[in-house]
Inverse folding.
């Protein structure tokens, strides 16, 4: 059942121009970002005396910044993907098709979430050329590249679950999209709130709730259990809220 | 006949309003049951509750002896639903869409079943076309096909002929009649003549409450409350006092080119046409018409749904 709905959703993404436009834009912007980071790094190296060049880390200046920018792109790209997931079905009353069938709400939410994640994988697939370039210049830290990909994928999963929930509470796609963007920004800002707070406990709680600290740790290759628990609980909670929102059947 | 659907005291509340209040009726196995009501009467809400799409606020619905709930999965494959707005994925091709629905319902022989339904509904010629590009009539047929593709024994059709051209209406009506040989159908419509042609039993709902439910003939009989006679007299002749036949009321009087037509409602149900004819002729009147009138479903419907 999950595979059937997942397949239909993926086909639906690729039957409309939106998916191609998003993938095209994503590859263009990420390409420009990567190129700029490389040029800035190279200029920085050349402008310094040889004894100082080792102080500029390629990983810090190019790899980490690149993936941080990918995360920034997700702020817009993922809400654009998820905003229609339920609001469009709600508007066209096509959810009746699932509700009149033996499909359970959690199966529907999981299938749609996995389909959105599949599209994100397509985004990331076009960036695979950048690790090859990095490998070409002699950086062979594949663990770091792997955890960086895992970091953006985990963030994407969290944003998708949040976006799905927003889409399940409004029949207006634009409102659903805006709510998702605000939600993601809130997740970023709450970490900054933690940094600014002088109370240690409050600061720790804020930092844990915010997504940024977890993302940064994964990005730097620290595969911590607490971060994975954070991501999986976040995805689980928002998926559960989406299931509950559908379960109210008040549409 | 067995009652396969029992709706018992069902109420559905939304914040600030009651959509359906204490609704009770039943549907017999193998029948086409007409569900009538003006817009906003609560038909669609009731039908969605029966299909298990919406939970009831109170009361119970049982189908094939099992309680209907949105969580209950066992009944889902036994109910074919065509809601008022046919739920269709406009970006899918007809055949793919029907195969998708068949998969959702766990149909084993998907290809044969989809081909069969497309053939029955004359959709084969458009099977490769996007649903969004089809005409309203074809879209409605695809909507019906998705309700039939998993061969459910109970069908809920919410205004299936709404918005179709006359030829498509006749075709769809014939098809529904054909379906009733194998399935039980709960069918809502605004077109009362259609309901009279198709249904043996009806339920009339208005403002969320049931006004009448049962055999069409029985409802006709109940509504009659006395006897309505159409009496035609010669031009310029007026109806004499008929109080010797019990209390009466002239419902309507119209003047035709060569006839004065009176519609008279007698409180007594006794057929007194023979005596009445003699009575009128004895008074030198030119009796041109004397016939019993049975109320149209439209009269019943209007009576049930007006000023209440």
């Amino acid at each position: 059942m999950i595979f059937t709905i997942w397949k239909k959703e993926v086909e639906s993404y690729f039957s409309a121009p939106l998916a191609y436009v998003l993938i095209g834009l994503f590859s263009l912007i990420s390409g420009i970002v990567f190129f700029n980071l490389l040029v800035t790094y190279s200029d920085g190296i050349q402008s310094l005396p040889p004894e100082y060049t080792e102080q500029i880390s390629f990983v810090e200046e190019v790899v980490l910044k690149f993936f941080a920018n990918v995360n920034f792109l997700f702020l817009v790209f993922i809400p654009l993907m998820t905003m229609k997931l339920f609001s469009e079905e709600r508007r066209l009353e096509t959810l009746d098709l699932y509700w009149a069938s033996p499909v359970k709400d959690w199966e529907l939410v999981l299938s749609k979430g996995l389909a959105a994640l599949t599209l994100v994988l397509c985004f990331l697939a076009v960036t695979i050329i950048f690790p090859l370039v990095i490998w070409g210049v002699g950086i062979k830290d594949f663990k770091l590249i792997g955890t960086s990909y895992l970091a953006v994928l985990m963030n994407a999963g969290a944003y998708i679950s949040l976006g799905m929930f927003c889409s399940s509470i409004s029949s207006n796609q634009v409102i659903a999209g805006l709510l998702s963007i605000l939600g993601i920004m809130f997740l970023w800002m709450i970490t900054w709130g933690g940094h600014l707070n002088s109370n240690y406990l409050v600061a720790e709680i804020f930092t844990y709730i915010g997504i940024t600290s977890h993302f940064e740790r994964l990005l730097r290759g620290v595969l911590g259990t607490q971060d994975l628990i954070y991501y999986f609980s976040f995805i689980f909670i928002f998926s559960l809220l989406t299931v509950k929102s559908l379960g109210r059947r008040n549409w | 006949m067995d009652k396969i659907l029992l709706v018992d005291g069902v109420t559905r509340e939304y914040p600030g309003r009651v959509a359906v209040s204490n609704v009770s009726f039943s549907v017999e196995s193998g029948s086409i049951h007409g569900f009538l009501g003006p817009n906003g009467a609560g038909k669609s809400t009731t039908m969605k509750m029966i299909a298990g799409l919406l939970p009831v606020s109170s009361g119970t619905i049982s189908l094939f002896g099992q309680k209907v709930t949105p969580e209950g999965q066992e009944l889902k494959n036994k109910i074919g639903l065509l809601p008022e707005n046919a739920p269709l994925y406009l970006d899918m091709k007809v055949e793919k869409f029907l195969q998708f629905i068949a998969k959702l319902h766990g149909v084993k022989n998907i290809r044969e079943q989809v081909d069969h339904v497309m053939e029955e509904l004359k959709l084969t010629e458009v099977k490769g076309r996007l649903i969004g590009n089809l005409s309203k009539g074809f879209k409605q047929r695809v909507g019906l096909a998705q309700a039939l593709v998993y061969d459910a024994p109970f069908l809920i059709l919410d205004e299936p002929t709404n918005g179709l051209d006359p030829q498509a209406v006749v075709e769809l009506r014939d098809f529904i009649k054909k379906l009733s040989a194998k399935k039980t159908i709960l069918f809502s419509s605004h077109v009362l003549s259609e309901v009279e042609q198709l249904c043996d039993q009806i339920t009339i709902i208005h403002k969320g409450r049931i006004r009448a439910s049962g055999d069409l003939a029985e409802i006709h009989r109940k509504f009659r409350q006395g006897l309505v006679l159409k009496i035609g007299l010669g031009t310029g002749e007026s109806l004499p006092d008929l109080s010797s036949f019990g209390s009466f009321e002239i419902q309507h009087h119209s003047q035709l080119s060569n006839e004065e037509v009176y519609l008279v409602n007698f409180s007594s149900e006794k057929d007194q046409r023979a005596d009445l004819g003699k009575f009128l002729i004895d008074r030198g009147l030119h009796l041109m018409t004397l016939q019993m009138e049975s109320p149209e479903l439209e009269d019943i419907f209007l009576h049930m749904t007006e000023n209440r």
Observations:
- The first helix of chain B runs from residue 43 to 50.
